[in-house]
Design a protein that fits this description.
By secondary structure, the chain is an alpha/beta fold. The protein has 4 domains: 210 residues, P-loop containing nucleotide triphosphate hydrolases (Rossmann fold); 185 residues, no CATH class; 182 residues, P-loop containing nucleotide triphosphate hydrolases (Rossmann fold), CATH 3.40.50; 130 residues, Orthogonal Bundle (PCRA, domain 4), CATH 1.10.486.10. The chain contains 35 helices and 18 strands. The strands form 5 sheets. A 6-stranded parallel sheet has the order 3-2-6-7-1-8, with helices on both faces. The protein has a 6-stranded parallel sheet with strand order 11-18-15-12-14-13, sandwiched between helices. The longest helix has 24 residues.
């Protein structure tokens, strides 16, 4: 990267950095940020002109830490600092001025998540709109939609029965308790519809009966027309019977032919004239219209409930004045389309010139459309854009991530795009690198195999594989090492056999590694839970994400109750839930002693005035203190650190979470709604000295690395597509034969699910530093891996 960040770059520029697993992406981003600082004079304006965007709070924290550390290393002249300074041309005196400026104006040090950046835009631009003054983003989207779905089942009994019937016919679920599964399906449909801004389709319904009659009539007319010319005419494969009863034979291959002549045996093809060809064209056209109408009719009840939910949601949003996360990109895009540039920058009070975008393969189209607006302006003013990503590691396509944007960035700008490939792997031993090089370099060579097992005859998938896996081979990093790597791959089919092998492998690994150095990666959360339980039974300490969930801390739950009380002082349960955090530790029996209809707070005013005065003091602070400052004040006044030292890691992470959400300038309820929506995603980092096995899903392991990795079940398959949204037609059922309008969208959806399954395999097998163990099954992705490994063994 030395030449890249010295003589090769000059403003304006676009730099795309392709970073495979373990390629030093975070170091490169830090290097790029510092290179910008080296080019610019230390000033608040220049600091504000730099924006680095990531996807998680953890990544934001790490990048900030790396940048600060890099500046310190350069200032102190350490070996690492001298090397870095030489690579980017950064003097220690200039680095010191920049570091002092960053500490002095830390709020202008703009390394943040993409969502917090875009939400800030929404809040500021909304000030100039006719939006309600109390408009806010309601983060409890799932909870609100669940309530609306429950209301539907309570109040729409006849439609509920029709919905159940459709669900049973389409998805053929197993088991007895079907309502939770049906509700889950409805939730998937409405969230997909909201996220993709699918418009309601309530146009005139097509009469299926008339289409059926027309199709039958046309089929009989065609057969009769041929027989009128020669009653002994012979048809191939009894296709005349298919034409006479087209509804029973919708899947017949006769409808794929281009001419009636192809349906008749050679001696009778001369009977075909223009009338017969016209009838055949009408048959195919009517059949296609019928298939499309049928696909829509089969999911009519699904469409109706989505229309109902969207209508009720709009009514609720109007009454309460909020936006859902899936809906707040739209008003942002509208603002950018309606305002001129000077007006926008006047409202924002910012003028960004240099953008660094991390994990760009996970950016959605709507996120990119918003960012591109500002990036285009920055490039026109001599700014820059640095993108870092890897399509092979795109495993969030189901969340609308669009890795094609990264691969096709040239289409969006007239400026030349410079490409850089990080060719070294700094994570793994040469043995692990060689294994993955040999394995994944065959993916493009074995396209027929991939397509056969994931999505047969899918040209969209073929193109994705050729693009995503174009650069897979890496070189071992030029660093001294005496560590011998190892890869083991075994075909294991039976669950008991897999479990025995996992335990025996771990027992052997214990001789050479601490348990904390070993990670077990699973495709599904259920598998994580199963293996965690299994390992504890085998006397092998193991922790999963749920073991470190922030809300498992009693103190954190108490703090949430406390903040909820400050937001809603007359809600007794909130106050009771935080009593134990107060130094006085009031007895909860106070609740039973009060008058039944009087809020506890008011009862305390009469019977416990000292406690009431303390609570009133805290309530008064809400008028001018931010959420972060309120919590800090409470922690200090109530000596929480001293009284609950075992919860200190949870408290520190909680404070950091409040700070990094950037919700301080909004009502206290904004953080509480954020917490309700995201609390299941907030995990404490594993203590380094805790010697226990780590169990994670592959999604959670992305961006992480471990000395030893075991992937016990490689058997997942792309999710089957049963329902699909079409831009012009709305929701349709997917069942062969398909209408022509469905085919291109189905191919795209199948390709996305298939490439994501393949990417999950890449992510799983590239987490290991020293040793990698793969146990695969003869199905799904495991079948692909099996064949590639057999090829490698040869």
């Amino acid at each position: 990267m030395k030449s890249l960040f010295t003589s090769s770059l000059s403003y304006p520029f676009i730099l795309r950095i392709r970073a495979s697993a373990g390629a030093g992406k975070t170091y490169t981003l830090m290097q790029a940020f510092l290179w910008h600082l080296a080019q610019l004079e230390p000033s608040l304006e220049n600091l504000k002109s730099l924006v680095a965007l990531t996807f998680t709070n953890k990544a934001t924290k790490e990048m900030k830490s790396r940048i600060i550390k890099g500046l310190k290393e350069i200032i102190l002249g350490t070996p690492a600092g001298k090397k870095l300074a030489q690579e980017i041309g950064f003097s220690s005196s200039k680095a010191q001025r920049w570091l002092e400026l960053i500490f002095e104006h830390y709020a202008s040090f703009q390394v943040k998540t993409i969502d917090s950046f875009l939400f800030s835009l929404l809040s500021l631009l909304g000030l100039d709109q006719n939006w309600p003054k109390n408009l806010f983003v309601e983060l409890k989207e799932t909870l609100i939609l669940e309530q609306l779905i429950d209301n539907f089942f309570r109040n729409k009994a006849p439609q509920s029965e029709e919905l159940f019937t459709s669900y049973l016919n389409i998805e053929k679920p197993s088991g007895f308790y079907l309502q939770p599964k049906l509700k889950s399906r409805i939730m998937d449909l409405i969230t997909t519809r909201l996220a993709n801004r699918v418009e309601k389709k309530e146009g005139t319904e097509v009469d299926l009966t008339s289409l059926e009659q027309k199709l039958n009539t046309l089929g009989l007319d065609l057969v009769e027309s041929i027989y009128q010319k020669d009653s002994k005419a012979e048809w191939k494969y009894s296709w005349n019977n298919n034409l006479k009863d087209p509804l029973t034979n919708l899947n017949s291959s006769c409808f794929s032919k281009s001419s009636v002549k192809e349906l008749l045996k050679k001696d009778y093809q001369g009977l075909v004239e223009e009338r017969e060809e016209t009838l055949f064209a009408q048959i195919k056209e009517t059949r296609n219209a019928y298939l499309l109408a049928l696909a829509k009719a089969k999911v009519k009840s699904y469409t109706q409930i989505c229309n109902y939910l969207e209508k009720e949601l709009a009514k609720l949003q109007s009454q309460e004045g909020f936006l859902l996360p899936s809906k707040w990109y739209a008003p942002l895009l509208t603002c950018l389309e309606e305002f001129n540039l000077p007006h926008i920058f006047c409202l924002l009070g910012e003028r960004w010139k240099h953008f660094l975008l991390d994990e760009f393969q996970d950016t959605s189209l709507e996120q990119w459309q918003i960012l591109k607006f500002f990036i285009e302006n920055s490039l026109s003013e001599g700014g820059s854009l640095i993108l870092v990503g890897d399509s092979k590691q795109s495993i969030y396509i189901w969340r609308n991530a669009n890795p094609e944007i990264f691969n096709q960035i040239e289409r969006d700008f007239s400026l030349e795009v410079k490409d850089c490939l990080l060719e070294y792997n700094w994570r793994s031993t040469p043995e692990v690198i060689e294994f993955n090089n040999n394995l994944f370099s065959q993916v493009r060579e074995k396209l027929d195999l991939i397509l056969e097992n994931l999505a047969k005859d899918n040209n969209e998938l073929k193109e994705k594989i050729q693009t995503f896996f174009a650069e897979v081979k890496q070189k071992p990093a030029p660093k001294p090492t005496n560590i011998q790597g190892k890869t083991v791959y075994l075909a294991l089919e039976e669950q008991e056999e897999i479990e025995r092998k996992v335990i025996s492998t771990l027992k052997e690994l214990q001789k050479h590694y601490s348990l904390k150095d070993i990670a077990i990666l699973c495709r599904r959360n259920q598998e994580v839970s199963h293996f965690t339980s299994l390992l504890w039974q085998a006397d092998l300490p193991a922790i999963s994400e749920n073991s470190l969930l922030l809300e498992t801390s009693r103190v954190i739950r108490g703090l949430i109750s406390w903040l909820s009380f400050l937001d809603s002082p007359l809600e007794d349960l909130y106050l009771l839930g935080s009593f134990f955090l107060l130094k006085e530790n009031p007895d909860v029996s106070l609740y039973s002693q009060k008058e039944s209809d009087k809020p506890l707070l008011l009862a305390l005013k009469e019977n416990h005035p000292e406690l009431f005065d303390k609570l009133a003091f805290y309530l008064n602070q809400t008028s001018y203190l931010s959420c972060y400052d309120l919590v800090q004040l409470f922690l200090t006044e109530e000596d929480i650190y001293g009284r609950f030292p075992e919860h200190l890691p949870f408290i520190e992470y909680f404070l950091e979470l409040i700070f990094t959400t950037n919700l301080d300038f909004l009502p206290l309820s904004s953080f509480l709604t954020f917490w309700e929506e995201r609390k299941t995603e907030q995990f404490l980092e594993v203590p380094e000295n805790l010697d226990a096995l780590r169990l994670l899903t592959i999604h959670s392991a992305k961006g992480l690395e471990f000395p030893v990795v075991i992937v016990p079940k490689i058997d997942w398959e792309p999710e089957k597509v049963q329902l699909l949204y079409l831009p012009q037609e709305g929701l349709v059922r997917i069942k062969k034969p398909y209408a022509e309008e469905i085919k291109p969208y189905l191919e795209k959806e199948q390709a996305q699910k298939a490439i994501e399954s393949l990417n999950l395999l890449y992510v799983a097998l590239t987490r290991a530093e020293r040793e990698l163990y793969c146990f695969y099954q003869d199905r799904g992705v495991g079948k692909i891996l099996k064949t590639l490994l057999e090829k490698e063994a040869c």
